[in-house]
Design goal:
The protein has about 110 residues and is of the alpha+beta class. It has a single domain (about 30-105), classed as Gyrase A, domain 2, CATH 3.30.1360. Helices cover about 40% and strands about 20% of the residues. The chain has 3 helices and 4 strands. Strands 1-2-4-3 form a 4-stranded antiparallel sheet, with helices on one face. It is globular and about 40 Å long.
Length: about 110
């Protein structure tokens, strides 16, 4: 069953994106940035095993939400990029899933 947050998606305005980005990062400045029309964050890990563990956990969450990020994976880093292709921009779904990615490490 689809999460209702992903229904009736629309691209957010620049102002809405800035507001949501500040809420997502909060006071901890969690590292999400707007780059080339997508939300992007690079996570650092101690080794390849931890990196792949994160990638597998994120893949599970993304599949459950039916909202899949672009991933760039190396030995000790994973860069995650969310945008909503069908609205040609960033939607609430991107922020929702970005917060779920952060929650994997808390």
């Amino acid at each position: 069953m689809s999460n209702p947050i992903h229904n009736n998606r629309k691209a957010l305005s620049a102002t809405e994106i800035v507001t949501q980005l500040s809420k997502l990062n909060g006071e901890q400045a969690l590292g999400w940035r707007l780059i080339d029309g997508a939300l992007e964050k690079t996570y650092a890990f101690k080794n390849y095993h931890e990196t792949i563990g994160f990638v597998n956990a994120l893949a599970f969450v993304a599949n459950a939400e039916n909202h899949h990020p672009d991933l760039t994976v190396s030995f000790s880093k994973c860069t995650v990029r969310f945008n909503t292709h069908d609205v040609k921009g960033i939607s609430v779904s991107d922020f929702f899933c970005a917060s779920k990615a952060d929650a994997l490490l808390t």
